Amino acid sequence: MTDDELKRALREHAYLEGDFVLRSGKRSRYYLDKYRFETQPELLRELGQRIVEVVRDHEPEAMRLAAPELGAVTLATAASLDSGLPFLIVRGSAKEYGTMNRIEGVFDAGERVCLLEDVVTSAGALLEAVEALREAGLVVRTAVCVVDREEGGAEALRRHSVDLRSLFVASELLEAGKNPAKPHG
């Protein structure tokens, strides 16, 4: 799948117009519904492969992937299956039963992890995950997302010494809707 085909597919499956409140509390005239693309096997497979390419290029020393619950877990699963790297799930808060873990999965302090996310606006969920991972003794320097909404998330992460790498930025997806595919021939 080419970049243009993937942009169009993401827009077709996930782009909604209306009045939406984002996790950050901001209002938006559009919403990128991650569940609409993360639940499509052909898109999930392609995204997993592309995430792995970015991890290999920008965080080659990563020993594990990590994903905040719930949305990015499917992306981490796809990338883990493609790369062979195990992954961690970062809960919003420690569970109140059993192991009472905030981070699910096996790891050793000092390991480098690459954090994954679906759509980044202000990076609030990622910053919470970075804090939890670092508190557990893990090294986090890079995050990879499918779409950066270009609303300050990359800058917020940079202030915490995390480099955000995105497969796409929102303006590319919005533009993809204006330029439908032209038939060949």
Characterise this structure.
With 185 residues, the chain is an alpha/beta fold. It contains 7 helices and 8 strands, in the order H-E-E-H-H-E-H-E-E-E-H-E-H-E-H. Strands 5-4-3-6-7-8 form a 6-stranded mixed β-sheet, with helices on both faces. Strands 1-2 form a two-stranded antiparallel sheet. The longest helix is centred in the N-terminal third of the chain and has 18 residues, at 41-58. The protein is globular. The two termini are 19 Å apart.
Give a brief description.
The chain has 185 residues and is α/β, with parallel strands linked by helices.
* Order of the strands making up the biggest sheet: 5-4-3-6-7-8
Our measurement of the CA-to-CA distance between the termini, rounded to an integer number of angstroms, reads 19 Å
User: What is the string of SSEs from the N terminus onward?
Assistant: HEEHHEHEEEHEHEH
Fraction of residues in helix: 25-40%
Rounded to an integer, what's the Rg over CA atoms? Answer: 16 Å
The largest sheet is: 6 strands, mixed
Task: Identify the overall geometry.
Answer: globular
| Number of helical elements | 7
Tell me, rounded to a whole number, the average pLDDT.
91
Residue runs with pLDDT of under 50 for 5 or more positions: 181-185
Task: Please indicate the percent range of residues in DSSP E strands (runs of 2 or more).
Answer: 25-35%
Number of strands: 8
Q: Which secondary-structure class do the elements indicate?
A: alpha/beta
